[in-house]
Specification:
222 residues, mainly alpha, MetI-like fold, 9 helices, 81% helix, 0% strand
Length: 222
């Protein structure tokens, strides 16, 4: 019986690969949008405008303090009640982008605030504008502490993308749920699902570890 299930699972591989591609598409678009939005909000979060810092901080606290599944359901099921109807795919991307941006915002803000104030003061005395200070002085230094946790956050976002299967997105997790109804060997089916997620995340895990080691070595030299 086990060999029969394994044979059926092998025959289902094309469907898993299609689901994997959907996972990559949702997570990839979500990561791009989350990174752009997160950096913009992170820079404002580390700025001097107290109102913006308060508003962004409140948004970050709400998103980070509520389950991602609830956020997905609100976007997909609740927004249509106010006239905003979205298909499953764009709803998944928006939810993932929103969630990822809140975490990336805090990473970026922390990295910017970690740069010594003397650097900004020196840049100001040199006549650089605020934009020039951020571009040439602050951000290059901040990126050293931003990149390792940022790549680690990418791994978490990719894994969290499995939640979007709950609204009908046929990603690799959804394919697993559909397959297990036909092949009642859950360990085998979701073992394959886990392997496919691992194949995506493992290179990023190694990259994050490499950046952390490199940063530690550079800090030691300094």
């Amino acid at each position: 019986m086990w060999s029969f299930y394994f044979h059926e699972l092998v025959n289902s591989l094309p469907f898993f690969l299609k689901g994997l591609w959907m996972t990559v598409a949702v997570a990839g678009l979500g990561l791009i949008a989350a990174t752009i939005i997160g950096f913009i909000l992170g820079i404002m979060r580390a700025g001097r405008n107290k109102i913006l810092r308060f508003l962004i901080g409140g948004w970050v606290d709400v998103i980070r303090g509520t389950p991602f599944l609830v956020q997905v359901f609100i976007i997909f099921f609740i927004l249509p009640g106010v006239g905003i109807e979205l298909e499953a795919f764009p709803a998944a991307v928006i939810a993932l982008s929103n969630m990822g941006a809140s975490f990336i915002c805090e990473i970026v803000a922390s990295g910017i605030l970690a740069v010594p104030k003397g650097q900004r003061e020196a840049a100001t005395s040199s006549g650089l504008s605020g934009f020039q200070q951020m571009r040439y002085i602050i951000m290059p230094q901040a990126m050293r502490s931003i990149l390792p946790p940022l790549v680690g956050q990418y791994v978490l976002i990719i894994k969290d993308s499995s939640v979007v299967s709950a609204i009908g997105v046929v990603d690799v997790t959804r394919v697993g749920w559909l397959t297990v109804q036909r092949i009642p060997e859950g360990l085998m089916v979701f073992g394959l699902v886990g392997i496919l997620y691992f194949a995506i995340c493992y290179p990023l895990i190694n990259l994050s570890n490499y950046m952390e080691r490199r940063m530690s070595v550079e800090n030691t030299r300094l």
